[in-house]
Design goal:
Blueprint: H1 7-17, E1 22-25, H2 32-39, E2 44-47, H3 51-65, E3 69-72, H4 77-92, E4 96-99
Parallel strand pairs: 1-2, 1-3, 3-4
């Protein structure tokens, strides 16, 4: 029987399958499952102090390598703080994957 995987594990597995080697983030509770999955993954993680910095670093990596820079931030103010980096990536046509989501949200009635 195949062990169950979290949404975060599935996402990290797909990042690896697509050749992602590095990502930038500000850790947050909105993607704890991803952070847990990244702990044992072969993806280098640069933890940033502020979401704008994470987005700018991912944008610069995308610009320098031609491969999408990866940025994970928390929802709400984290997403707002990252918006400048996302805007620059859009204006300069830089490949960037910006992720801001909630995992494991299940409602039982």
């Amino acid at each position: 029987m195949t062990p169950l995987r979290t949404g975060g594990q599935i996402l990290v597995d797909q990042l690896i399958a697509h050749g992602v080697e590095h990502l930038f983030c500000v850790p947050g509770e909105s993607y704890l499952a991803v952070l847990d999955a990244l702990h044992d993954a072969r993806i280098a993680v640069t933890v940033c102090r502020q979401e704008g910095g994470a987005a700018m670093m991912a944008e610069a990596q995308g610009k320098l390598t031609g491969r999408p820079g990866i940025c994970f931030v928390t929802r709400g103010p984290g997403a707002t703080n990252a918006s400048a980096g996302v805007h620059i990536a859009h204006q300069d046509s830089t490949p960037l994957i910006y992720h801001n989501a909630k995992y494991g949200l299940v409602t039982h009635i």
